[in-house]
Amino acid sequence: EEYLSSNSWYMGMRTYRGRLVALVASYKVVINFDSSYEQVRDTVDEWEGWMDTQNKGAPDGVRGGFFTSARVHWWDTNRSMLLCAYYSIGAALAVVFVVVLLATLNPLTTVYATVSVGTVLLLVIGTVLGMGWELGFLEGICFAILIGLSCDFVLHMAHAYTSADQPTRELKSRDALARMGPPVFAAAMTTLSTGLVMFGCTFVFFFQFGTILVLTMLYSILTSLFFFLPLTNAAGPTGRCCSLAPLSTKWRASGGADKEASTEQARAAEPETGQIRQSL
């Protein structure tokens, strides 16, 4: 009676001016703060579904029950990081498409490069999932950071193929491999070696970061050499095939002609203006 007349918490019950206003029931949950996004999501959805069912059948005045746990406080952050990784993949592919198109002015080469970068990302994600990992908070951070590295080697090969001054696609592919193969391979080996050093770390994040870094470098060099170049060797553009360069040249020429015409008109107007000033 003394407790009910006070305003305090006691054994999971909250009173206010002698009335019971809140009741807390504690249960054990099977998730931790570092559990995967899917596991936390399924657990939260299950509890919220159960609470909705209980609220619908509860008397008036006690239908505001809800579920919460300190172990799901990271859920929104976990979800945000995972969505950030997905958005980073989409942004990387979009940037690759725009950059390659502006650099090569060839939509076919652009499509080959974009598909190759997407292949690298799918291979890395598939390998990580095959290793038993789950896409969670730490994995989302690693992917968001390392997605940009998956684009480098394919972009170098695409530029080398386009700039190769050879008559056939086979010779252009061979020239791109001869000129860019060694530096790209050396860059892959140096970056891959930094990832191998992280395998000795006991901190989980650094170990996962090193693993994803090694996989990204490995699949990037393999895809650029054994997927992108075979594509260009089999069906790569040659000459002006699928090239936007003639349209660009024509547009610049028309812009230059219009500029020259306006300049001539301005020069032609100068003597007339001088004569008018002199007569005045």
Write the SSE topology.
Elements: E1 9-10, E2 13-16, E3 19-23, H1 37-56, H2 75-104, H3 107-130, H4 137-146, H5 152-163, H6 169-197, H7 204-235, H8 245-279
Antiparallel strand pairs: 1-2, 2-3
Helix pairs in contact: 2-3, 2-4, 2-5, 3-5, 3-7, 4-7, 5-6, 5-7, 6-7
- Mind telling me the C-alpha Rg? 32 Å
- Separation of the first and last Cα atoms: 109 Å
Taking all residues together, what is the mean pLDDT? 80
Q: What pattern of helices and strands is seen along the backbone?
A: EEEHHHHHHHH
How many DSSP H or I helices? 8
Structure description:
The chain is mainly alpha-helical and 280 residues long. Helices cover 69% and strands 4% of the residues. The chain is built from eight helices and three strands. The chain has helices at 37-56, 75-104, 107-130, 137-146, 152-163, 169-197, 204-235, 245-279; strands at residues 9-10, 13-16, 19-23. It has a three-stranded antiparallel sheet with strand order 1-2-3, with no helix packed on it. Strand 2 (13-16) and strand 3 (19-23) form a beta hairpin. Helix 3 (107-130) runs antiparallel to helix 5, helix 4 (137-146) packs across helix 7 (204-235) and helix 5 (152-163) runs parallel beside helix 7 (204-235). The longest helix is centred in the last third of the chain and has 35 residues, at 245-279. It is elongated and about 90 Å long. It starts with 8 loop residues before the first strand and ends with a helix. Mean pLDDT is 80; it is low at 1-5 and 273-280.
